[in-house]
Amino acid sequence: MPAHSIDRRTLLASSVALASAAAAPRFAFAQAPGGPPVAPVRPVTETYFGTTVVDPYRWMEAEGPEWKTYALAEAAYAKSVLDAIPGRDALIDAVAHYTALVVAVSAVQIGGDYVFTQVRPAGANTFKLFVRKGLHGQDRLLLDPDAYAPKGSHASLDWWAASPDGSHVVFGTSPGGSENSTARIMVTATGAILPETIDRTEDASISWNADGSGFFYNRLQAGAAPDSLDKYKLSACWFHHLNTDPATDAKVLWKDASPVLKIADIDFPGVSVTPGSDIALGAVISGVQNEVRLYATSVSAAQAGAPKWTPVCVPADDVTSGAIHGEDIYLLSHKDAPHYKILKTTAASPDVASGKLVVPESASVIRGLGAAKDALYIQDLNAGLGGLRRLGYDGVLTTIQTPFAGSIDGLYTDTLHDGAWFFLQSWVRPTVLCYVGPDGVVKLTDIAPQPPVDVTPYTSEEVFATAGDGTKVPLSIVYKKGLRRDGSAPLMLNAYGSYGITEDPAFIARWLPLLDHGGVFAVGHVRGGGELGEDWHLAGKKLNKPNTWRDTIACAEYLIREGYTSKPRLAVVGGSAGGITVGRFMTERPDLAAVVIDQVGVSNATRSEFSPNGPPNIPEFGTVTDPEGFKGLLEMDAMLHVKDGVKYPSVLLTTGLNDPRVSSWEPTKMTARLQAANGGPNPIILRIDVDAGHGIGSTRGQRDRETGDILAFTFWRTGDPRYQPKG
Fold this sequence. Notes:
Blueprint: H1 8-11, E1 30-31, E2 37-38, E3 44-48, E4 51-55, H2 65-83, H3 88-101, E5 104-111, E6 114-120, E7 128-133, E8 140-143, E9 155-162, E10 168-175, E11 182-187, E12 207-208, E13 214-219, E14 236-241, E15 250-253, E16 267-273, E17 279-286, E18 292-298, H4 299-303, E19 310-313, E20 319-325, E21 328-333, E22 341-346, E23 356-359, E24 365-371, E25 375-382, E26 385-392, E27 397-400, E28 407-412, E29 420-426, E30 429-436, E31 442-444, E32 458-466, E33 472-480, E34 491-495, H5 512-516, E35 520-524, H6 534-538, H7 546-561, E36 570-575, H8 578-588, E37 595-599, H9 605-608, H10 618-621, H11 627-636, E38 650-656, H12 665-677, E39 684-689, H13 700-717
Parallel strand pairs: 34-35, 34-36, 36-37, 37-38, 38-39
Antiparallel strand pairs: 1-2, 3-4, 5-6, 6-7, 7-8, 9-10, 10-11, 12-13, 13-14, 14-15, 16-17, 17-18, 18-19, 20-21, 21-22, 22-23, 24-25, 25-26, 26-27, 28-29, 29-30, 30-31, 32-33, 33-35
């Protein structure tokens, strides 16, 4: 990198960077007393397929010293606004009180006699890796990611995978929520770290070979700058032998490796192998696209870097995942089956065209599958609630009864052990880790103990709002019993609606202070998500994207009409791709809500593909280089729909300066445009965390403080007298 260039993550990788801010060139911004900084307007005009687009803040996308100074000035203004809210600190304490009580378990894996778990212990700030001998053994701390934290920052455990015999664990850590993982290998028995390290393993997708002597992994290309459009392009899958130099690793799957393969620049190649099978399944994932391209070869050939790939399926076959047991390949597909079906092929004839239907489409939406020693376990979604089925290798399909109605996630199986592990929770019931054996009986484990929180005062209900086109939109509502439906309650309506992701019932301890204040938490399961199958996803994708925010509008209108809240008490919340949802909600219906919370949100959709994570997202949102793609993206672009003189709601936007998914210039541009255009008195602020990314690697303390700020801002702007600043 040239010495004169500026790299955002180098300058702002941790809070320590603030101490050196004075060394950067100084820039002055107009700023009224007590008001936000005013960003310079330098219009850039472009014409796409006959449509002219004017971008007033294109200069921010370089994220150079001037942008940095402006962003930190916005952060200082937001801090001054939030600091002035009475009761804000008490709210943060209330949030922290609840989250500290929860033993949060996010993953489980079996390796030999060991049970590995990723846990954030009660009161802890970060997730750590623990291990125990057998289900009832004593937990032992195996890895604390903060051992790899740079001074003045924190580190996150991004991913990990134990070898089949449990003797080793490969794991990735990154600083400051950046997700820029470095892989290391630990000896389970002693905690010793092997000498080799592997950088650029942000999307490692680890798969160990059967004897635990090595693993397949994805690695980003060398030489691409962190903020380059090439960062996520031309990644490759490699095989690493333990105790060897990664420079000697065998390259297994990559673009142009073979005439048989079709791999584009933005594709992520990976290889999956399963104990007890000689099938190596090569997966080519096109950015965020759910439908994959699969190939098969022998494990030995793949390990040697000399695979002979045989096609299994192409994206048009609508296969989204697979599992291997012995010589059989199970494929999950929504081809002519929007609720999904399962097909079975074999190593001898792996092509999906020869597949046998083993689980037909039904009323249940199949969300995942996993092969165990005894059976294939199937994760379902039934009208918003999780379900589980067992397909014996004899072809018998049975339904498993769960201890209570809720959501299922984290399904784990492996072909060396019988049964399946999964997490079960609901809006008002904390998470439990369950195990189901071949007999179909579900047992609760002690790995996720219930927190000492009285949940009996809370309740939830599932209803439907009717969208403008007549579509029934599922809507979850959570509140404290005894709620008066007279429109006086503050309500936070969360909506997302992208990638086919489902917003499943979850016990979220940090939102309990909202309910304790007499508030309501609601989730709109809007189109673009996967709650009702692939058709629901497609109905909110690309040119259909307006359905996503209009479904959210319909949910808001239902909640107001039914007395759960009122316009002056309503807050709308969305994050990441949900920034499109809440941004266009606000620009289309600025009168409908009092508050908009836009967390690390996509705000400038026509420019997103020109950020490092933009190209992988083209399959979901489209590209401006295509007429239809541009039309859809223009409609999604919240910043370009902001109009001068409109009275916008109170808006709190957030970003983390290490965000690898939605570049910080997007919420920064949106903030500047809203502040410049706003025709009313409502505050518009940008909350910035200099030691955070997209939130995935944030500590409990960081999340607690952000949640407290969101609640305080919401209570203030929805008129709660306890939170009104003096003067």
